[in-house]
Amino acid sequence: MVFMQGATSLIETVFSKKVLTYLDTLVCFYYKATARNDFGPR
For each of the chain's 42 residues, which pLDDT tens digit applies? Predict the structure, then answer.
Protein backbone atom coordinates (compact mmCIF):
# COMPACT_ATOMS: atom_id res chain seq x y z
CA MET A 1 0.00 0.00 0.00
CA VAL A 2 2.76 2.44 0.97
CA PHE A 3 4.82 1.30 -2.01
CA MET A 4 1.89 1.89 -4.34
CA GLN A 5 1.39 5.42 -2.97
CA GLY A 6 5.11 6.14 -3.38
CA ALA A 7 5.16 4.83 -6.95
CA THR A 8 2.03 6.83 -7.83
CA SER A 9 3.47 10.05 -6.42
CA LEU A 10 6.76 9.38 -8.26
CA ILE A 11 4.90 8.85 -11.54
CA GLU A 12 2.86 12.00 -10.93
CA THR A 13 6.04 13.98 -10.24
CA VAL A 14 7.77 12.76 -13.40
CA PHE A 15 4.60 13.30 -15.44
CA SER A 16 4.04 16.84 -14.14
CA LYS A 17 7.70 17.71 -14.73
CA LYS A 18 7.44 16.45 -18.32
CA VAL A 19 4.23 18.42 -18.84
CA LEU A 20 5.80 21.58 -17.38
CA THR A 21 8.88 21.16 -19.60
CA TYR A 22 6.62 20.61 -22.63
CA LEU A 23 4.53 23.69 -21.81
CA ASP A 24 7.68 25.75 -21.25
CA THR A 25 9.04 24.67 -24.65
CA LEU A 26 5.68 25.41 -26.25
CA VAL A 27 5.54 28.89 -24.71
CA CYS A 28 9.14 29.57 -25.77
CA PHE A 29 8.41 28.45 -29.35
CA TYR A 30 5.20 30.51 -29.47
CA TYR A 31 6.98 33.57 -28.07
CA LYS A 32 9.77 33.28 -30.65
CA ALA A 33 7.27 32.85 -33.48
CA THR A 34 5.21 35.83 -32.26
CA ALA A 35 8.31 38.01 -31.85
CA ARG A 36 9.49 37.02 -35.35
CA ASN A 37 6.07 37.94 -36.76
CA ASP A 38 6.00 41.25 -34.86
CA PHE A 39 9.46 42.41 -35.91
CA GLY A 40 9.59 40.77 -39.32
CA PRO A 41 8.62 42.39 -42.64
CA ARG A 42 4.90 42.68 -43.19
Answer: 567 778 889 889 998 999 999 999 999 988 888 876 665 555
Distance (Å, rounded) from C-alpha 26 to C-alpha 34? 12
SS3 at position 40: coil
Question: Residue type at 16?
Answer: S
Question: Is residue 41 within a helix (H) or strand (E), and if so which, with residue range?
Answer: none
**C-alpha to C-alpha distance for 9 and 4, rounded to whole angstroms:** 9
Helices (H), 1-42: 2-39
Please state, in angstroms and rounded to a whole number, the distance separating the CA atoms of residues 3 and 21.
27
